[in-house]
Amino acid sequence: MEKIIPYHWTDTLCGKARFLIAPFGYGTKVAAENLASKLNLKIGAWKSNDLSASANHNSVKITFNFGVANPGHKHITNSFCVWVDCLMWLRNKIPETVLNYDLFLAENFFAMNPALYEQSSKIEEIPPLLSFNGHPLNSHFNSQGHILISFGGIETPFTTDVHRYVVPELIMKAIATASEKLRDTRQILCCLPSHISEHFQKNPALSRIQFRSPAHKEFLEILKAASLYVVQPGLYGPFEAFQYGIPTVFTTPFSYTQVCQARRYEQEGICGQIPLWHFLNADVGHISGAIETEENTCFAKMENWIEKYLVKECIGSYTEWALKSLSNEAIASGLTKKRKEYSAKCKKKEHQYLCLIKKGMQ
Fold it and tell me: pTM, whole model, 2 decimals?
């Protein structure tokens, strides 16, 4: 039996619906809360780790599972089960532990793997479950706004201190150095989980950077006012920036899904310049899409790559990338517009999935 990775969960206030979210970045939480809002469901506070023995399972009529491949079936067998996945485009198969679910919702960040439809006829492609909390999209871009760096997807069950501290520090030092060399007067903000921010705030080499650990609503305000967004090649964070029309540069990936996403951004022609991407991409090699078996191995491989190549030999490459990023040379002409058009195309694919969910809730 596959190992159960601790996850987060909550119930609606009425106790009839349950939400499970995988502990990878903030995207699954945003997606779950957005879907709950669309269904007019009020959810309680998020709880950590596996469902407790004291949780009331009998009253739950519908379970929404956001990417938890092995939640433990004993908790949810009596409910209508919905699998919501932002990575269905990557998967080579639906996890066997959820194959008997009643409905599969695939967020269409990228085109789906057609082979999955052979496993289930219950798959519905849906627009990415982004939430802008009522904030209108930018009509006027502020070219003098701050520089925003974000590492929202940094914490996962496979993250080590090499992923957590080494790469972010290298990136932030490069941005701070480039800002000083270019005499760039823009404020530099960095959004990180609070326990990681506290570590970096003690580093005098990063004194030019102001650290934040905002909730999602506050983060959108910060993002909307930015003139440049520096971020890992994730999904929700970049797509939010794309829809706002914020010029965005990707950092070197340092997780399994970020490598896969960088490859897909590249295929779609919306990747832009990533420092040392050519070398990392070649060293990672083939990825089949067997997420639950490949992810841990890929994290370990990337940790070795970071320790072997990144820290000792590549400071100059990062400084050069940062100088190009702050002077807009790293963002090809028309790329921001192309990204916005791509994200809008995904958003337009509306389906009647809410009706299917409501039917299952009855």
Answer: 0.91
For residue 1, the model assigns a pLDDT of 41
Evaluate whether 293 touches 254 at the Cβ level (below 8 Å): no
Q: Are 196 and 172 in contact (CB under 8 A)?
A: no
Mean pLDDT (whole number) for 246-252 = 94
Gap between the Cα atoms of 126 and 84, Å rounded: 9
Q: Could you report the per-residue pLDDT of 347-358, keeping only the tens digit for each? A: 766 667 888 888
Joined together, the tokens standing for residue 169 give 């520090």
Instruction: Copy the structure tokens of residue 77.
Output: 């067998």
The closest of 102, 145, 109 to 125, measured between CA atoms, is 109
Distances (CA, A) of 201 to 4, 184, 351, 358: 35, 21, 45, 47
Q: Which residues contact residue 263 at a Cβ distance below 8 angstroms, ignoring those fewer than 6 apart?
A: 281, 287
Model confidence pLDDT, tens digit, residues 179-237: 999 999 999 999 998 889 899 999 998 999 999 999 888 999 999 999 999 999 999 99
Tell me how far apart the alpha carbons of residues 8 and 20 are, in angstroms, rounded to a whole number: 6
Residue 5 pLDDT: 67
Sign of the Cα pseudo-torsion (104, 105, 107, 113, in order)? positive
Residue 271 CA to residue 288 CA, distance in Å, equals 21
Alpha-carbon gap, residue 105 to 122, rounded angstroms: 9
Position of tokens 């990023």?
325
Q: Give CA–CA dist 283/184, Å, rounded.
A: 35
Paired sense of beta strands 47-48 and 17-21, if any? unpaired
Which sign does the torsion angle of CA 294, 297, 301, 303 carry?
Answer: positive
Beta bridge partners of 64: 19, 82
